[in-house]
Known about the structure:
Elements lengths: L7 E2 L12 H20 L8 H12 L11 E4 L2 H12 L5 E5 L4 H9 L3 E5 L1 E2 L2 E2 L1 H11 L3 E4 L13 H13 L3 E5 L24 E6 L11 E4 L2 H15 L4 H12 L3 H26 L14 E5 L9 H11 L2 E2 L1 E2 L13 E5 L5 H19 L4
The protein binds pyridoxal-5'-phosphate.
Amino acid sequence: MLGDPEMISFAGGNPAAEGxxxxxxxxxxxxxxxxxxxxxxxxxxxxxxxxxxxSALQYLIKPRGVEAAVENTLTLTGSSQGxxxxxxxxxxxxxTVLCDGATFVGALQxxxxxxxxxxxxxxxxxxxxxxxxxxxxxxxxxxxxxTIPTFQNPTGKTIPAARRQKIAELAAKYDMFVLEDDPYCDxxxxxxxVPPIKTFDRADKVVLFNSFSKILIPGLRLGVAVGPExxxxxxxxxxQAAIAFxxxxxxxxxxxxxxxxxxxxQIARISPIYGRRCDxxxxxxxxxxxxxxxxxxxDGGMFLWAELPGDPQNYDLTELRMKALKEIKVxxxxxxxxxxxxxxxxxxxxxxxxxxPFERIDEGLERLGAFLKIHTGVSQ
Length: 380
Ligand SMILES: Cc1ncc(COP(=O)(O)O)c(C=O)c1O
């Protein structure tokens, strides 16, 4: 349905197409194929292209304060692959995974496919609440805790440093792995950088995933895991059985991109665009959505999470989502889709602010606001 040009989508996690550095990618594809064509064309190693893993460490991971060696890295075919690999090596049917109360659907799918019992941790404006996390660790004995600490999908919230430290301490205290999924951290358009949970990880229990999808292009299907060597070895074996190795051409392009030092300028180019679109979207929600709609203003990333007023149980946004697509041609994701706490987010809407330009943001929110007022009974 998104192929329809009239459709205004706040639904996906799509980067702005005008932000793609296509000219650089065309030039670097040519360069790496000419310089290393035979190597790139050949079957590669399951762990990933050595040069790429080194440059990911040097240009992406270490600048964020994470100390790691190449043996602590594994190339992922998009960080999505990592959810599946973690599930394969750590989960048996019936095992528990803890995650943020509302979380990324793709990861939920991987855990459900593994027949895991997924339990959501309560969140406030600063993301997951450590006291609730500890209570659930003690009660559920999870195999791991999956969290998206920065500009969270779907809520846009960021966990502050003190809580991150606490999460790392809980991982050590209860001998539990933490999967820190951080694809949005570089897309900051205001406020101060917060160190990854991995920087507080004295017990080597945290696996950090970063992705090239949101900062470069999703089509490369490239991510990197940084974590305990033993665990990554097991994930690498599972990866070998699944796809043998990742897209070596993509790794070589990303490697050249990083080594030419192009990433900071790319991030500096796209983040302010996203910041302006975020502000525009927030202004539209204030103007057109039912009175009493709340949200935490994101400092980066791609999503704003709108909480409609009143009792969540009075809403059925899953049904309204389909109706909105057909009748007003506006797409959004409803809270039910992303909920790991049954019934909790029935009144919530995730709005992506990176895909649509200003005029379409305004137009889409005007249509959606009027639609919500009619169909939810919140007339103000
Ligand atoms: C939190 C989160 N993790 C991972 C991904 C998937 O990223 P990739 O394209 O690297 O598989 C997404 C994509 O939307 C996401 O929102």
